[in-house]
Amino acid sequence: MADLNTNVRYIKGIGEQRAKSLQKLRIATLRDLISYFPRAYDDRRSYKKIRDLTDGESACVEAMVAGPPTLSRIRAGLELVKLRAVDDTGALDVTFFNQAYRKDSLRAGETYTFFGKAEGALAKKSMSNPVVEQEGARQLTGRIVPVYPLTAGISQLMLARAVEQGLAACQGLLPDPLPDEVRRAHQLCRIGYAYEKIHFPANDEELAIARRRLVFEELFLLALGLQRLRRRRDTLSCQPCRDTELTDFYSSLPFPLTAAQRRAIEEIRADLTAGRPMNRLVQGDVGSGKTMVAAAAIVCAVRSGKQAAMMAPTEILAGQHCRGLSPLLEGLGISCALLTGAMTAKAKRAVLAGLADGSVQVAIGTHALISEGVAYRDLGLVVTDEQHRFGVNQRSALSAKGERPHLLVMSATPIPRTLALMIYGDLDVSVIDELPPGRQKIDTFAVTGAYRQRFYGFLAKEIAAGRQAYVICSMVGEDGEIPDERKAAVEHAKNLQEKVFPSLRVGCVHGRMKPKEKDAVMAAFAAGEIHILVSTTVVEVGVDVPNATVMVIEDADRFGLSQLHQLRGRVGRGQHKSTCILVSDNRSEESRARLKVMTQTGDGFQIAEEDLRLRGPGDFFGQRQHGLPSLKVADLTCDVALLKEAQQAAQALLSQDPELAGCPATTQRLAEMFAANEGALN
Ligand code: ADP
Ligand code: MG
Q1: 317 ligand 1 Cβ < 6 A
Q2: Closest ligand 1 atom to Cα of 293
Q3: Please, are residues 306 and 242 in contact by the beta-carbon 8 Å criterion?
Q4: How high is the pLDDT of residue 337?
Q5: Is the C-alpha dihedral spanning 435, 440, 446, 448 positive or negative?
Q6: Ligand nearest to the CA of 547
Q7: Strand, helix or coil at 636?
Q8: What distances in angstroms separate CA 302 from CA 75, 251, 257, 275, 295, one per listed residue?
Q9: Which pTM value belongs to this model?
């Protein structure tokens, strides 16, 4: 008896050879097979008489092959099989390119169904490369046919047959992870029907019914898993932080905090004093001042006798946070240390000793903070900055260094609300929806390379006025070559220095430099010793040099919108007017539409929404990065209403049956879905 984990090679009608091919699509088990959903559908239901075919129309034609097909070799690599097919209304000339076998497989006098795009009119009608099958077979024609994502060596038909075999093999044994009463309450079809019809719908209604059910199931299970994690966490207790005064913190800042910053800090203080571990996401646009919010949290934790750790995704960023925060914190009597992989063993040892004995109260660093051998005396607060670069597992590895520490996550990119709900479903969210006063809009232009002389002139003028500029290169590689970010940046910098700006100082940073070298260049740029910094996206997140006012992004069409927004956010951080120039020679409509969004708005949330719409959620966040189960059918851009419905259903079920004792199939499915992070999230 098969179960869903059965290897596909044991499924009747599949066998060793096909199983090997399926492996290429990462289809190993019966579940993989039936969950390999079509990416589209080809509607081949329309039948036409030859007389009624119109030019450009796709339709099925039932017609008899009038004479033996002929094969001609036009030249090497081009073989044509031609035949004439007839019905009682007319004749159709059919041509197959490079399908020599058709000469013998199609026989004069037999009737076939041809499906393809008709060309020509009146007496001269033709089809090229139609789909053909025996009249009445109705596998490839006369129905809606699934279109699967494929790789070489596998045909649509072979996959469709395999799926059919798979569905037959698990008939009646698909456990339904949706409890019956949920299914009924939300008017969803049964699981067997859903799987069958998502592959082989007879009409649009069946497809809609199947899809709705599967989307709901997916979102429901994800919501359920996340809410369960959250409930479990809410039952945990930890020592509350003493409610601490932050008056001296506020007054030691060089500026008053915005109302939005203060609100976020108040929410954090409430969490810290509640006696439960905090799990909070701070979302705010680039430049909204998230670092100060983290600093306030750190002060609270340390004043309650705890240690705090702040983890950033890059050495540059960790170094910058440390340089920025340690004077502030040390002014309040709090000891800080930097910990990164690039430090000397000796320097590291000193910090480790300080963390172990508690004399270092705040550690700021990269993922060196979670490496083995790092032990804290009493880690009470964990802050991760620019969260989407860390997986859930890294977050929890840091948490594991303490005893139920409070967790504060700072997002790098504003995320559309729907996506935030899903990805951060287990977190509380504070939104900083206000920028510090005096920020000017960053003028953004999308130009082609033809404008190069003009914007170089502009750069020179800004620099003459005392400002600085970034020039970002994308990773480019010749065809078939591994993209080399070092080469791109170094060559561009060399060219700018020698040919364009010989009298200015041009610097260069890229990801392949040693952290020490990188830091040295960044420090020189921050100190104004470098006028133009040519860089790869290593400056994408968080880097703060307020005197820089021009951001040039080469090959801007190669970046995601949210990434462009991050990059653009490196300027406009001081009191001077800033400009962003997006250079792209890609004149495709899509690329132009994307860059236009950038010139029209500076609102990161809106840009993220647009990015999600244009690229789809799969690309928006690399799945691996957030470490949560990936979505197969749901599309967060258009299934918003269903998402809400599913979340409410999950909540209702959990209030009624917190341990899901009455729904073993649901529990089982959750365990499988969250297998990768179950341990980590607990
Ligand atoms: P992000 O939210 O992108 O991490 P940062 O925390 O790096 O933003 O802050 C951006 C810049 O704004 C920094 O130079 C910071 O010192 C400054 N800043 C933060 N809060 C305020 C404020 N309330 N008023 C003025 N400047 C601020
Ligand atoms: Mg930041």
Answers
A1: no
A2: 6
A3: no
A4: 97
A5: negative
A6: 1
A7: coil
A8: 80, 18, 21, 16, 11
A9: 0.68
pLDDT digits (tens, 9 = 90+) for 408-450: 988 867 776 666 766 666 678 888 988 888 778 899 999 999 9
- Ligand 1 pocket member 79 (CB < 6 A): no
Would you say the CB of residue 286 lies under 6 angstroms from ligand 1?
A: yes
Ligand 1 pocket residue status of 604, Cβ below 6 Å? no
CB distance 289 to ligand 1 below 6 Å: yes
- Does residue 663 contact residue 233 with C-beta atoms inside 8 Å? no
Which residue's CA is the closest to the ligand 1 atom numbered 26?
436
pLDDT at 389 (0 to 100) = 58
Query: Separation of 626 CA from ligand 2 center, angstroms?
Result: 19
543: CA distance to ligand 2 center in Å?
A: 8
Stronger pLDDT, 392 or 215, i.e. the higher one: 215
For 265-283, b where at least 16 C-beta lie within 10 A, e where not — what string? Answer: bebbbebbbeebbbbbbbb
Q: Is 282 touching ligand 1 by the criterion CB < 6 Å?
A: no
Hey, what amino acid is at 11?
A: I
At 364, which helix (H) or strand (E)? strand 362-365
Tens digit of each residue's pLDDT (9 = 90 or more) over 465-518: 999 999 998 765 444 455 566 778 889 999 999 999 999 999 999 878 887 788
Closest CA to 617 of 566, 560, 565: 560
> How is the chain split among helix, strand and coil, in percent rounded to 5?
45, 20, 40
Instruction: Quote the tokens at residue 20.
Output: 């090997």
Q: Confidence class of residue 90 from pLDDT cuts 50, 70 and 90?
A: very high
| pLDDT above 90 coverage of the chain, percent | 52
Distance between CA atoms of 128 and 119, rounded to whole angstroms? Answer: 9
For ligand 1, whether the C-beta of 240 sits within 6 Å is no
Q: DSSP states of 436-473 as a string?
A: PTTPPP-EEEEE-GGGHHHHHHHHHHHHHTT-EEEEE-
What's the pLDDT tens digit per position in 576-623? 999 999 999 988 888 888 899 999 998 888 888 787 776 655 444 443
Rg (CA), the chain: 31
Count Cα atoms within 13 angstroms, Cβ side, for 581. 23
pLDDT in tens, 137-162: 888 899 999 999 887 778 888 899 99
Question: Rounded to an integer, what distance in angstroms lies between the CA atom of residue 666 and that of residue 276?
Answer: 28
Which atom of ligand 1 has the smallest separation from the CA of 291?
6
Mean pLDDT of all residues belonging to the chain: 86
Kindly give the number of the ligand 1 atom that is closest to the alpha carbon of 288.
2
Site to substitute for ligand 1 among 252, 283, 290, 292, most atoms within 8 A of C-beta: 292
